[in-house]
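Incident review: delayed structure delivery

Summary: a single-chain prediction request sat in the queue longer than the usual turnaround. Root cause was a stuck worker, restarted by the on-call engineer. No data loss occurred. The affected request and its eventual output are reproduced below so the record is complete for anyone auditing the incident later.

Affected input:
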Amino acid sequence: MPLGFVVAAVFLVFANPSWKSLAWGLVLVVPGIWLRAYAAGYVKKNAELTRTGPYAYTRNPLYLGSMGIAFGIAIAAGRVWLGVLLAVMFLAIYVPTILSEETFLRGAFPEFDEYARRVPRLLPRLTAARWDESNAGAGRFSAERYRHHREYNALMGAAAIYAALILRMLFHLRG
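Output delivered after worker restart:
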């Protein structure tokens, strides 16, 4: 989390937003926020292997949503090199994190290997993976889980960054 604040500060210092870049950024930010919210309402971290909802399309919908938000904000900032910096940062942080989580899940849930064979790690399938009928009713969206995971923070954070970018654009003195 502290690294996120540092990155946000760098974005704001070097940002050159315009109304057009802000609008184009929303093309990724809005679906990213939605995906994180949707996924948070399904996952029961460390209690069960979630394979329904967005987890039937990608094993990491929370990270995919985070990337959408972050790359959308990079577009909104109006600097291509910020997007490249972000991609490098995501590779450095998320690749080891995802691999570590997969090691844990493989040890905790015997069905993980089958799940991993059928559902891609990050880029989603076009259709949901299907599971046996005995699990058909499991894994419905829960607003309580969404609130428990405090996923509304992603929306508030993105809104705050957008507000800061708008203020930067409106009050930045150009030479």
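Verification: The radius of gyration is 18 Å.
Action items: add queue-age alerting; document worker restart procedure.
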